[in-house]
């Protein structure tokens, strides 16, 4: 089992099984406290915004251009660790990945 550690918008931590081989967003959008993911992973809505725990930032592939542009428009953008969860493919290597769900905007 590859766990994802999720901090919800109230600051509560949850441990769930992540879906390997698909984006982190796919797991998050199935949760009551998860993300809306309105565009379904097309990198055009930013409603899947998360803050990646700093211990994990360097283990993820860097942001691509579209993701970077979309994130910069958000008031809750944090240059160090903001990511669109639809752009992070979950794998066994990322077991234990910790993300906090960013505020709704
Ligand atoms: S689901 Fe829309 S940008 Fe990620």
Written account of the structure:
- The chain has two helices and five strands, in the order E-E-H-E-H-E-E.
- By secondary structure, the chain is α+β, with helices and mostly antiparallel strands.
- Strands 2-1-5-3-4 form a five-stranded mixed β-sheet.
- A hairpin with a 5-residue loop joins strand 1 (3-7) and strand 2.
- The longest helix has 8 residues, at 65-72.
- It is globular, with a radius of gyration of 12 Å.
- The mean pLDDT is 97.
- FE2/S2 (inorganic) cluster is lined by residues 25, 37-39, 41-48, 84, 86.
- Residues 25, 37-39, 41-48, 84, 86 line the site of FE2/S2 (inorganic) cluster.
Question: What is the topological layout?
Answer:
Blueprint: E1 3-7, E2 13-17, H1 24-28, E3 49-52, H2 65-72, E4 82-84, E5 97-101
FE2/S2 (inorganic) cluster is lined by residues 25, 37-39, 41-48, 84, 86.
């Amino acid at each position: 089992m590859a766990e994802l550690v999720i901090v919800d918008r109230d600051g509560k931590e949850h441990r769930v099984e992540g879906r390997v081989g698909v984006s982190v967003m796919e797991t998050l959008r199935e949760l009551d406290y998860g993300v809306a993911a309105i565009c379904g992973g097309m990198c055009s809505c930013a409603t899947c915004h998360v803050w990646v725990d700093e211990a994990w930032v360097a283990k993820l592939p860097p942001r691509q251009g579209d993701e970077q542009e979309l994130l910069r428009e958000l008031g809750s953008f944090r240059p160090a660790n903001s990511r669109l969860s639809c752009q992070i493919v979950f794998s066994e290597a990322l077991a234990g990945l910790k993300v906090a769900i960013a505020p709704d905007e």
